[in-house]
Amino acid sequence: MKLIFLIPFFLISLSSSAEVIKLAVINSEFDENVSDFFLITDDQNKIHSMRYVTTMPNGGIFEDVSLPAERVMQEGATIVVRNNREAVKLFVEDFSLITGGTIKLNYLYSGVTRTWYTKRLKLGLIDNQFKLFDLENNRTNKLFMRINWNRLLGAVGIRDIQTSFTSGVLSAHVR
Predict the structure, then answer these.
(1) How far is the C-alpha of 78 from the C-alpha of 105, rounded, in Å?
(2) 93-102 contact pairs (CB < 8 A, 24+)
(3) 3-state SS track over 24-87
(4) Exposure on the CB side of residue 113, measured as CA atoms within 13 A
(5) What's the rounded Cα separation, in Å, for the pair 91 and 102?
(6) Global pTM?
């Protein structure tokens, strides 16, 4: 009898074709952890949520965070924390859950002076799939955070976030 109730649920779950799209790999000079940045879309290719998974060098998961897209659009999201301080915050501008828009990464340039800089990227559709671009419309799928180093204090923040593109399939640390 219970099987009869499960069949409609199973059919409904098959008809929804949510997709997990890996947009970028994020790493840094700070440590050897690697973060994979994903978008999850619904069956109509509308952005449903954002997910980032940070793995340690030994392959263990350090952090696995999923956030609803509406929340990210309203409040933004902290995607990097170092020494109990927010280091990178993600916001969006002129953004649509259907077509994408501008992604704004605010990063802590100096914790001493509390100076923040901004890196802007674009999220757009190519062949009905979301892809990440720099502002010159170059595809990007790798972000690398360089340390802002002070001789007396050591690492005080992020000097810049470099972007690059690696063709082929990005390795996924998550299933």
Answers:
(1) 9
(2) 93/120, 95/123, 97/46, 97/47, 97/69, 97/70, 97/73, 98/45, 98/46, 98/47, 99/124, 99/125, 100/47, 100/124, 100/125, 100/130
(3) EEEEECCCCCEEEEEEEECCCCCEEEEEEEEECCCCCEEEEEEEEHHHHHHHCEEEEEECCEEE
(4) 8
(5) 9
(6) 0.82
d(CA 38, CA 26): 11
Helix (H, G, I), strand (E, B) or coil at 118: strand
Query: CA–CA separation, 173 vs 175, rounded Å?
Result: 7
Q: How far apart are CA 165 and CA 152, in angstroms?
A: 35
Contact between 120 and 107 (Cβ < 8 Å): no
Which residue matches tokens 């799928």? 141
Task: State pLDDT tens for residues 64-123.
Answer: 999 999 999 999 999 988 888 999 999 999 999 999 999 999 999 999 999 999 999 999
pLDDT at 47 over 60: yes
Q: CA 12, CA 137: separation in Å to the nearest integer?
A: 38
Please give the DSSP secondary-structure letter assigned to residue 168. Answer: S
